[in-house]
Amino acid sequence: MENYTMEGRTYRYYGQEAPLYPFGYGLSYTTFQYRDLVLSPPVLPICANLSVSVVLENTGQQDGEEVVQLYLRWEQSSVPVPRWQLVAFRRVAMPAGRETKLSFQVVAEQRAVWAQDWRLEPGTFTLFAGGQQPSQQTRAPSEVLSTRFTVTGAARPLRGC
């Protein structure tokens, strides 16, 4: 095998075609609402980590569990990258009518791209938080919040951080 690209070989690289059962697919006996997606800092140096917080509320009548998922999208990249990359997830048990603030850390390594070695590149990124993949169609309502952040500095090898 000489071609190691993933383009056309996994749903993350299929373009606009959605997988039949994407990560996080499923139904619930309750409903959840996401709000207050906050990134800190919204502009970060090339080697810095990103802190993320989001509020999750069980708006239904039943206790339930939600798999909170964070996805990252590169807006510009020097090499082909996935449409979005899962960077964190957490299963949360939520009593009916309650809410909780969740915190995550997106480390610099999760923004690295492969270009003969692992490299960090500056640019604009979009972070998605929700109970499903971005643009996923499901029978159970679930929302996905998104916000952008910027990475500054010169491109560099990951091992240089």
TrEMBL record:
Sequence ranges assigned to domain Fibronectin type III-like in this UniProt record: 66-133
Q: Which domain of life is it from?
A: Eukaryota
Enzyme class at the top of the EC tree: hydrolase
Spell out the reaction equation it catalyses.
Answer: Hydrolysis of terminal, non-reducing beta-D-glucosyl residues with release of beta-D-glucose
What EC identifiers does the entry list? 3.2.1.21
Q: Which family, according to UniProt?
A: Belongs to the glycosyl hydrolase 3 family.
The family database entries (PANTHER family) matched by this protein are listed as: BETA-GLUCOSIDASE (PTHR42715)
The protein depicted here goes by the name: beta-glucosidase
